[in-house]
Amino acid sequence: MALFLTNLILLPLLLLANFSPTLSLCYVSPYAARVHQSATQTSAYRTYIVLVEPPPPGADEEGHRRWYQTFLPSSHIGESGEPRLLHSYTEVFSGFTAKLTEAELDAVAKNPRFVRAFPDRMLQLMTTHTPEFLGLKNGTGFWSNAGYGKGVIVGLLDTGIYASHSSFDDHGVPPPPMKWKGSCKAVRCNNKLIGAKSLVGDDGSYDYDGHGTHTSSTAAGNFVTGASDHGVGMGTASGIAPGAHIAMYKVCTAEGCEESAVVAGMDAAIKDGVDVLSLSLGSRTSVSFRNDPIAIGAFSAISKGIIVVCAAGNRGPIPQSITNDAPWLLTVAAGSVDRRFDAGVHLGNGKHIDGEALAQVTKPTSKPYPLLYSEEHRFCQNEDHGSVAGKVIVCQATTPMTQYFDIERLMVAGAAGVVLFNNEATGYTIALHNYKARVVQVTSADGIALAAYTKTSLNDAVATFTYNNTVLGVRPNPVVASFSSRGPSSVAPGVLKPDILAPGLNILAAWPSPPFKIISGTSMATPHVSGVAALIKSLHPDWSPAAIKSAILTTSDTMNNIGGSILNERHDKASAYDRGAGHVNPARAADPGLVYDLSVTDYAGYICWLLGEEGLVTIVRNSTLTCVKLPKVKDVQLNYPTLTVPLASTPFTVTRTVTNVGPADSTYAAKVNSPSSMTVHVSPETLVFSKAGEKKTFSVTVICQGVGASEIFVEGSLSWVSKKHVVRSPIVAIRGAGDPAPTPSP
Q1: What is the pLDDT of residues 389-414, one digit of tens each?
Q2: Does the global pTM surpass 0.90?
Q3: Is the same domain home to 285 and 168?
Q4: Which residue range(s) make up the domain with 431?
C-alpha cells in the first residue's frame, strides 16, 4: 500500500511463527512462543494426503470423488463420526485427503493405482511506504502504463480476508475477465474481491487472525487515504497492483495451516482461473520435492501458466534455513525500507541513540529518568519490582510474547519506560511490536553501549525519550532482515535460493482492527513480489511464469540508496544467499530486454536427474514424458536466470539460452564482475538479435583458484549489456553444486 500524503507506502510484514513444528505463516508473530500442535495425532486416525492414478478420461468433479472413494475402506465415516474423505483434488494432482489408521493406509497402498501418501503437516504463516520505495508513483510511468495490474487475478492462500475493509473497495476496478470461474463467499464481494472461500471447515472466509487481510492488501489493495497504525506511517495506502482482482482461499487459522487445506486451496485456485498464486507460508524445513505436496501442486500451477510466489521463511540468519526452494517457485526474502518510526534515547552524557517505537508519545516529558541495567536481569525479568519504580529499564529482547508480559509487569511496578535492545544475531534489524507502553527498541550495538554507560556512570546514568514519528529517506536501505531465511538449499544447492529480496520489515497494511497494522516477515515480502508479478502479467499476458521470474531477477538492484552493496543485518555485504539476485525493481522488471525461459519439459529433465522416474511420475504427472526419453538436466545446467557452479580449480562450463523480448534489432555485450579468485570466460562475448522472440545460447566457464578451505562459496556476476538494457545474473561457485543426483529419501 502506498502512502502518498507522506510519500509512504503501506505493505504487509508478517513474521514467521518459528515455533510451529512444520508449516506456518511466514511472519514475525507477537505470539511466536506459542507451541502449535504437532502433526502427530494421539488418535489412531491420522490425516493423509494420498496421490493415486487419475480416473478414466472424462470424469467430472463428482466422478473424481467417486473414484477416490473406491480407495477407502467400505465405511466412509470414521469412528469419530467425521467423513474420511476431507478434500478431493483434481488440478494440483490426482488424489485426496482422508483420515485413516495405519492399517487402513497399508490397505490403500496395496491398490495397484496407489502412487504415494504423505502425512498431513502444519505449515507456518511467514508474517506503507513500499510502492513509493519501489519506484511506483500514482498516475505516472510504469505503474500507470501497466494499468495498476488490471485484468490480472491474484489468488492468496492465507487466513481469510476482512472483506469490509476499504482496501477492498472496487472503485476504478473493472469486472473480472471472462475466464474467472470462481465464487465469492464473503460479507462483501465486488470487482476487487471476486473470490473468497474457506477450505478449513468453516463456512466463511472471515479473517480472525489478520494475516490474510494484510498480505492481500499488500499485493493488490486499492488506494486508501489517511492510513496509519495508531498515528504512525500516515499516508495513502495501496497494494503493489491496486487494479488487480483478489481471490482469497482461507487455508490457515491462527494456529497454522494444514498442508491438506493448502493443497485444496491451490487446487481450487487453479480451477477458478487465477494468474498469480501468493503463499506467505511454508514449512520449517526443506524436504525432497517428491515428498512436498506444496511443490508438487505448484508444479501443476506453473504448468498451467500460473506464477507461484512463496515466502523464503523466517528462520534467518541461519544458513540453509530456506524453505519453498523448488526451482519452479519464486522464493522471496525480506528486507527493510527507507522509513523508520523514530524514537531516541538522549543520555545524560550528551550522547543520543536512535531507536524506533510504534507507541509514539505526542507530548513527551523532558524530565530525565535514571537508567537501570543488570546482567542478572538482562532479559527484563526483574523480580525485585520495587527497584524499578521511576526508572527506565534497559534489557535485551527475547520472544515477543514473553516480552509483552515482562514489560507489562515492569510498567505495573512503576517503571518510567523500557529500552529494549536486540540480541547479537538480530543486529541492526528492528522488528517493531506495539508493547502499548513507553518502549524504545534499539540495535544490539546500541544496547551494548547503553549497558556500558549504565555501568560506568552508576547512579548518574539518566536518559530522556524523544519521538520524531515517521522519518523517510533512512540510509542505508534496503538491508536484509535478520529473520529472513538464508540459502543455500539443502535439497537443490545448484539452484540459487532465495530468488529475490523485497520489503518485509515493519510493513503497514490492512488489518481487521485496527484498520491498519505494522508487522514484519517474509510473509510481508511475498505479496510485494506477487503484486509485481501481476503488473508484469498485465503488460505481458503471454509470458510464462519462468519468463516473469527471469524478468524480476535479472533487473533487480544490488546497490542500496547510498550507492554501496546491499547489506545484511550485521551491516556486512549481503551475499546472494541472503538477498538472492537482488532487490526487486518493478519498473525495470517490466522491460528486461532478455529472459531465461523454462518449459515443463526442461523442469522434467531436471527432476529426472534429481529424483528419477518415480519423482517424475509424482511431480510432473505427464504420461508422455519419461526419463528414458528425456535428457537428464543437472541443477547447474537448468536454464535458470542465476548461475551456480561447483567451487573448483578446474574449469566448469554451464550453458544458458536467452530470449529477446526487447527491440527487434539489438546487440548485447557480456560484462563480468568477479573477485580475483574467480575467473570467468563467456562465449560468445556478444549476442546479436534481429527479431523479437529470437533465442541465443551461450556458455560460461568458471575457474576458482586460491580459495580458502573455510570459504563455502565465491560470488561474481554476468551482465548482458545493450544500449537500453542490463540483464544481470549472479554467478555463485559453491562446494557441492552439480554433484550426481542424490538417492531420494524415502
Answers
A1: 999 999 999 887 788 899 999 999 99
A2: yes
A3: yes
A4: 341-469
